[in-house]
Write a structure and sequence with these properties.
Blueprint (H helix, E strand, L loop, with lengths): L7 E5 L4 H11 L3 E4 L17 H15 L4 E11 L20 H11 L7 E12 L2 E14 L15 E3 L11 H7 L1 H21 L1
Parallel strand pairs: 1-2, 1-3
Antiparallel strand pairs: 3-4, 4-5, 5-6
Helix pairs in contact: 1-5, 4-5
The structure holds inosinic acid.
Inosinic acid binds next to strand 3.
């Protein structure tokens, strides 16, 4: 594979390799993405915000201070279920307890919505972009859908096996990654981020 020399380097503030894989596919060949999987001894960054945007900004700023020469993106995302008044929301990753597995989170969510006739839900994603401790922008995306009665499919991660996006009958975990990446909350946020970069490049040229 030949390197794209004009590609923009981005550091994704995550150790979640599922997120990294989706970002790599969504950003395409004009970006070179690195994540924090191989970075040791990072201080704990506490996601204390009550909204996705707050937490994305906390992560992006903190990591960009540690890597001041890198353009840092941080994604905070999660599932909001109407029958649970928007839960698990910002607590999506730890809904089943601190360090809970995806399976445990899914089990808890299905238990909580057991018997609910209203199954509507949405995934939300906010991406914050920061350099050297300074926030440059935030972008957001969401996708509506509904919660199944039991998990289906082996693709994706997190709550994908119990979420059917609007316009489909399959869960995100049953759909091919290309289909998820065409309609997902993250896809919409990344499309907005790419528009931001394109505008910034155009302005820099003029
Ligand atoms: P974060 O790393 O704090 O943003 O946590 C995000 C959590 O929300 C993940 O651990 C998943 O449980 C859930 N989540 C976010 N995006 C997705 C997705 O695309 N599919 C399934 N679950 C997701």
């Amino acid at each position: 594979m030949t390197a794209n020399l004009s590609a923009m380097n981005l550091l994704l503030a995550t150790r979640n390799q599922h997120k990294t894989r989706e970002f790599t596919q969504l950003l395409g060949p004009n970006f070179t993405l690195r994540d924090l999987t191989r970075t040791r001894d990072l201080p704990e960054i506490r996601e204390t915000g009550r909204a996705f945007e707050e937490n994305a900004v906390i992560k992006a700023i903190a990591i960009s201070k540690i890597f001041p020469h890198e353009m840092v993106i941080a994604d905070d995302s999660g599932l909001e279920v109407d029958a649970l008044n928007g839960a698990p929301g910002v607590f999506s990753a730890r809904y089943g307890g601190e360090n809970a597995s995806d399976q445990r989170n899914v089990e808890k969510l299905l238990h909580e919505v057991q018997g609910a006739t209203k199954r509507s839900a949405r995934f939300r994603c906010v991406i914050a972009l920061a350099k050297n401790g300074k926030l440059m922008t935030t972008v957001a995306g969401e996708v509506g859908g509904r919660i199944t009665k039991s998990p289906r499919g082996g693709n994706g991660f997190g709550y994908d096996p119990i979420f059917i996006p609007e316009g489909f009958e399959e869960t995100f975990a049953e759909l091919p990654s290309e289909t998820k990446n065409a309609v997902s909350h993250r896809a919409k946020a990344v499309a907005e981020l790419v528009r931001y970069f394109n505008t910034a490049r155009r302005l820099a040229r003029n």
